[in-house]
Hints:
Elements: H1 2-29, H2 33-46, H3 51-63, H4 67-80, H5 84-100, H6 104-117, H7 122-149, H8 152-157, H9 165-192
Helix pairs in contact: 1-2, 1-3, 2-3, 3-4, 3-5, 4-5, 5-6, 5-7, 6-7
Amino acid sequence: MILSFFSLHAFAQKEKANSFIEKGNKYYRNHEMTLAENEYKKALAADPGNETAGFNLANTLYRQNKQIDAARLLLSMSSQSNNKSLLAKIFYNQGVILSKQKNLEQSIEAYKNALRNDATDKEARENLQKALLELKQKKQPEKKENKKQQKPDEQKDKSPSSMSQKEVSQRLKLLEEKEREIKKRVQKDKANSEGGAKGKDW
């Protein structure tokens, strides 16, 4: 009897969540983002694992210039979902946010993940190529600036072959520390984030 009651209750919660999602979608189409956000949050309160509500909420947050909140929600969803179609859209939207924030390396990885889940996504492929090109252009002026700032003698001294073993190991340690910091930040974001319309519209 209890099991039967529980399944009916779960069904009722899903129906309730779907009703909130429908209301949220109407508000979203009318560009009433605050009202849409509230409806999607109600849907998630009724059915916390609802991927449609989560994904639509992330879209709504993005439209309100709450990119960090949208990115956190998408990050949380990407670690919980097994739906390849949804994952492709989640990673694509992450790529868009990261590109706008000029985090090109991370946006490139997000677009690659989108393509790993849906190899036919033309927009993800185009955005990946744009981000790669932008990163390449960004790195070229930096190299020229570094060469201008160094004296000709310093350029010779700092070539990889003339660097001491100590200098090489120090640089590696610095890189490892930076990687650790980034991993800690990502884990914190995952822990702090809340945990999906299947339509990508960014």
